From TrEMBL:
It catalyses: ATP + protein L-histidine = ADP + protein N-phospho-L-histidine. This is histidine kinase. InterPro entries: 2C_sensor_his_kinase (IPR050980), HATPase_C_sf (IPR036890), HATPase_dom (IPR003594), His_kinase_dom (IPR005467), HisK_dim/P_dom (IPR003661), HisK_dim/P_sf (IPR036097). Keywords: ATP-binding, Cell membrane, Kinase, Membrane, Nucleotide-binding, Transferase, Transmembrane, Transmembrane helix. Residues 311-323 have a biased composition (Low complexity). It comes from Halorubrum saccharovorum DSM 1137. Signal peptide: none annotated. The keyword Cytoplasm does not apply.
Length: 333
């Protein structure tokens, strides 16, 4: 939705200045008359005595007009620059996601074809490097789609965090992963369905960046008054220093690209939902904490109307392997 950048408080600078001039002129006369009446010398008041006050009002209205007009021009220029930048980013995003990805698919296809025809070990290693690099770029294009589709507007709905956590955990279907979820039956937070991406990304990072023979992931959902916290702990090597620097600086450095984009997205998307993200790395692994605003769950009638499928769950505080039930979302808007 486009904003009327030529208006200030819903009015143009000229309208503001004229309104101030009229109100100021009336105010000067009324206050002078009130003071003269209070001291008992109303007969001594003349319009000439109000000239000084009117002159001040005229000058200040001109100053007001100049200041608001200047700010208006700056706002229009900033908005134009922002719209141009957004258009450029949208074009670059589409080119990267579609054109570049199509070219990457061609590279991947020829890589697989060459892999079947080349026998020497050195060439196979080179082909594997090409394959890993193209897979990495394809992954970046998928993450760019998440950024493009996400809305920066504050969330208007609520979602069952426990259901979203169990759904994300159920997608981790690997024999070398030991995963537990400790959570109440449900925990509703102020968020929309896009919050499911950072939750899913946290679980996937805990598996992908872990070289242990048995990759352990312990997830816990706790409610503390006005906030609800998701804590995901793993036994991996931890987040590298350069990637933590990206999260602290809130910008992408030349040293960190695909591996840190996922973590940056987790941070950005949680913050757009009004939440916060914390990372803690120790010798035993990494702990990621996502905190959100707690809200009351929907009433029974609302929940039945918007529920797509029954949601299973553990009893409060029980620890169990995720059962795969999906999250429930309700739009309050």
């Amino acid at each position: 939705m486009k904003l009327k950048s030529d208006l200030v408080f819903g009015r143009s600078p000229r309208e503001l200045a004229v309104a101030y001039l009229c109100l100021g002129a009336v105010f000067v006369v009324s206050t002078d008359l009130a003071v003269a009446s209070a001291v008992g010398s109303l007969s001594t008041w003349t319009p000439v005595r109000a000239a000084d006050g009117w002159a001040f009002v005229v000058v200040s209205s001109l100053v007001l007009y100049g200041a608001t007009a200047y700010q208006q021009r700056r706002a229009i220029a900033a908005r134009s620059e922002l719209e141009t930048s957004n258009q450029q980013l949208q074009v670059l995003s589409r080119v990267f996601r579609h054109n570049v990805r199509n070219d990457l698919n061609v590279i991947q296809g020829y890589t697989d074809l060459l892999s079947d025809r080349i026998d020497d070990e050195r060439s196979q290693e080179c082909l594997e490097t090409i394959r890993e690099t193209t897979d990495d770029v394809v992954e970046i294009s998928e993450k760019l789609r998440v950024i493009e589709d996400a809305s920066p507007a504050p969330p208007s709905g609520r979602i069952d965090l426990v259901g979203a956590v169990r759904e994300a955990a159920a997608n981790i279907d690997r024999a070398d992963v030991s995963l537990t979820v400790d959570a109440p039956t449900e925990a509703w937070i102020r968020a929309d369905e896009s919050v499911e991406y950072p939750i899913r990304e946290v679980f996937e990072n805990a598996v992908t960046h872990n070289d242990e023979s048995v990759r352990r992931i312990d997830a816990r959902v706790t409610e503390n008054g006005s906030t609800t916290c998701l804590e995901v702990r793993d036994n991996g090597p931890g987040i590298p220093d350069d990637e933590r620097a990206v999260l602290r600086a809130e910008e992408e450095t030349p040293l960190s690209h695909a591996s840190s984009i996922g973590l940056w997205l987790v941070k950005w998307m949680c913050e757009t939902q009004g939440g916060t993200v914390g990372f803690e790395t120790t010798d035993d692994g990494t702990t990621v904490r996502l905190r959100f605003e707690s809200v009351d769950g929907p009433t029974a009638s609302t929940e039945c109307a918007c529920r797509e499928s029954p949601s299973g769950g553990d009893t409060a505080g029980a620890s169990a392997v995720a059962d795969g039930s999906g999250g429930r979302a309700v739009d309050d808007g």
